[in-house]
Design a protein that fits this description.
Distance between the termini: 46 Å
Order of helices and strands: HHHEEEHEHE
Radius of gyration: 16 Å
Largest sheet: 5 strands, mixed
Shape: globular
Strand order of the largest sheet: 1-2-3-4-5
C-alpha cells in the first residue's frame, strides 16, 4: 500500500466516517459506495485506496482504476493531486463532480500529460438533472440542444 510521509492509511477505525460521507450523496458517490458496502475499507478487497488529508469526514478520495475525489477543500484537493503524481500512475481517469475534478486535473495534467483524462460530470445525475437536460425535455444525454 502506498504510504507517503505524513499519510496514515485508513482502517477499520475510519469506516463509520467513510460510510457517512458516502451516504451523504449516494448517487454521486455510487461507484465507491457500492464497493465499500460490499467489501469494506480493506484496499485489497475495495480495489483501491481511500485517501484523506486529515479527517475522512471532510477529506476523502478513492484511488483505484479511477481517481475519484469524493469530498474536500481546495487544500485537500492539492494534497490528493500531490499524492497522485508522487508515485507511478495507477488510474485511467479522474472522475467525479466537476468542482472536485477540475482543480485536481489542473495540477495533475502537466505531470501526466494531455493524453490522460479528467472526466468531470454533473454533481449527480438524476431524474431532474440528466446530463442532456431534464427527463422529458426531448434531449438525450450528451446531445446538443
Amino acid at each position: 500500500m502506498l504510504k507517503l510521509l505524513g499519510d496514515k492509511p485508513l482502517g477499520a477505525r475510519d469506516a463509520a466516517a467513510v460510510e457517512r460521507v458516502l451516504m451523504s450523496d449516494p448517487v454521486a458517490m455510487c461507484m465507491v459506495a457500492a464497493r465499500f458496502e460490499t467489501h469494506g475499507i480493506n484496499p485489497r478487497l475495495l480495489g483501491g485506496e481511500l485517501w484523506t488529508a486529515q479527517d475522512p469526514s471532510t477529506s476523502l478520495c478513492f484511488s483505484g482504476a479511477n481517481l475519484i475525489p469524493l469530498i474536500g477543500s481546495p487544500d485537500d484537493l492539492d494534497h490528493f493531486s500531490d499524492r497522485a503524481v508522487a508515485a507511478p500512475r495507477a488510474c485511467s481517469s479522474i472522475v467525479g463532480r466537476a468542482d472536485l475534478v477540475l482543480p485536481m486535473w489542473q495540477q495533475i495534467e502537466p505531470v501526466w500529460g494531455a493524453g490522460a483524462r479528467g472526466a468531470a460530470g454533473p454533481a449527480a445525475a438524476g431524474p431532474d438533472r440528466m446530463p442532456g437536460g431534464p427527463v422529458g425535455s426531448g434531449r438525450a444525454a450528451g446531445h446538443p440542444r
